[in-house]
Amino acid sequence: MKNLEVKFENFHLSRLGTKNYDQNDITIRKRNFTPDLSNSIFEQKKYQDLIEKITFSSETYIYDYNFAPGIQFYKFLTNYPESQNILKELKIWVPDTVIFNDLDNPNIWIFTNHIGNIQYIKGFSDYDVINKIGVGDNEKELCAVLKRPQINQKLHKISGLKTTILNTIDLKKQIKGKSVSGPFAIQKYVKSKGPLAFHCRTVYKRSQKHFLWVISNKKTYQNEKIKEELRCITNITVQDSFTIRQFKSGIFLDETIPYIETIVKSLENKLDIEIEEFAADFIKDENQRWWFIGCKAFLIKEHDISGLLLNESEILKPFPKEKIKTCRICQVPYYPFKMNHSLTIKMITETDQILRERGINLKWLDRSVYRQVDIATVYQDCTVCEYCYELYSLNQEVKNLTNKISRKFGIPYSDVLTQNFVMVGKSENPQTKELKIGRILVVLNEVCDIVVPLKKESEYCIKYEILGYKQEIYLQVKEYAERNLKFIPINDIKIFHFFMKSRDKWKKFINTMGKFNIKLYKDDIVIGECNSDLSSFFSPIVITKNYYDLILSNKGEEIGFLKFSIGFDESKKYEVPLENVKYLDGLYIPPEGYSFSHPFHEEWIDIIPNVSDYNRQIFQDYGITVKPYVKAEERRYSIPPRLSQRRDDKSPSKRQPKRSSTPKAVSSKTILKALKTLQPLLDTAERSFLNSSMRTSLTPTLSTYSTSLVSFSRSSTPRYTVSNFKVKLFS
Q1: Which tens digits make up the pLDDT trace of 292-314?
Q2: How far apart are CA 365 and CA 354, in angstroms?
Q3: pTM of the predicted model, to two decimals?
Q4: Distance from CA of residue 716 to its chain's centroid?
Q5: DSSP for residue 423
Q6: What are the boundaries of each domain within the chain?
Q7: In the CATH scheme, what architecture does the domain 419-727 have?
Q8: What is the pLDDT of residues 95-128, one digit of tens each?
């Protein structure tokens, strides 16, 4: 990744401004996320989402005026005001910044001295500002940047700064009329390195991985036909005038993060706070020096001080003595006022059984008091704590939501349990082998720029095969053909698992496979295909790759383009079971239904589309009714929501599967936290299924999340985890 950033700085920035483009230039530009000023609503929506993301304009970032990003933030870099404790001066390079009309505060001048320490002065004159920041020899030369608070009309709050570039003449006019212009700041102009203006927006996160965006102009400094605002500074308010690229590692990030860590540490010591997230802008000049030009956003950790004894007299009082009761589930003693819930012995045994079926091995599950209970006492009430009662309630909600979603989509709940569910318990270990687990993520976004009109009377589908798995995705052509639209969204995601001894086996498989072939069918007849190269995944650096490939007919005619992405990830070696495993070109292919409970790679999140609300809004703008597509021979399994409530459950009874290995124990609170997370996931899944066109998301074999009966064990050994069905969620 460091090599990519060096290439971006020394190669891309130095050659994009010329007319001599070669294939490498086009490849770099194609991989950049560049907003397109087209009439497409998709591109417009994509641009708006990108701007909101990089400007931190969501409702999460709300500040008090006295402590907020923007012109108010600069004074917190110094020891201003004098009443604060004197802290060590920050060693950060900040351009001369003068803040005017900041409420009742005096005008303040912030700068970095000759040894790199930030300082401030007060009581300066307008002449001092013009003489220091302006250029006396050439008053038309750019010398300063004017920054004003910008109001977000949607959220009715200050969001970011509106920047304007100034020469010496404009600087004099601005300072002369400062008394009637509201709060603003004037900062000395810093020209970035290279032929294009650019700056880095670095994001520091306390508990997550840091990253940055590189925002650069498309027009060079020398292009005098373009306004100075579009070529001398980066201006993201003008569409199609800039490029944005995100880095999660590299030399730019390594050089700017230490500055932010210094600022965060200083603020925490000065204000007695804890900062969770901090975003700042930096410019690298021709002398290889990074300049801090402003704070973009930050988040402060909230602390709950309820229940603390703040009065010293209360601390001296002895606590009253009270009797305690033991929870009948977790066997933990509590005060009586925390034991306000009761469950029957039958409910307790059901909860124990569900936890055992998930492979959870807790000490209190081994109690023998409820194993042999008389029929007359199964409905006897037992007092339980609040946590265990909530654990029982969430278990019931999970079961109800699972049954509800299963009925709506015609998924036989009991059948899937009987076929797929594998209890984690005691059994003989199957044959295992130490192998790496690989995962391939295939994301089909859309068919776009369609040249040949598609007939609404015909049935179109896309088919491909990888690792022996054959996939087919049917397209909703009718709604788009009637409106002569040039795109058809697909939004299909699949994950494929395999085992391998080393990465060389993966390279051998790519060489054997050759091209990744995707075919377009019309009424079961191939009318076009595209072949994509996978050789980029030879390198361990490449985790994801975006494709925009041409679909050619059998006669070589252009049909349209297919937009999709592929991701590859490999884990460390595990002892994996080899039951029903197929061997294919050096790779071990597990049976359908295999699931590896390991988090996604961070770069995968960027290529997963958010379709739950995004497609719905786009379709409504075109007047299209969104409804899931159902293949003709599968329609008899589709049950209307109203009728599904009356349908009798004719699924076979559940069989209790055999148990395998015993996982490590986890606490009751860990289970409770996991179940709390599971409930909103199911709600999101239900809305996503009902409102999106992702018919293939119901496929239970290649899934992203197992939405019920998930094993919450801390065991690091992968195993066959089972669910009644699996869904893909997008947050």
Answers
A1: 999 999 998 876 554 554 555 55
A2: 11
A3: 0.41
A4: 24
A5: B
A6: 1-61+191-303, 65-189, 325-418, 419-727
A7: Sandwich (2.60)
A8: 999 998 877 778 899 999 888 889 888 888 888 8
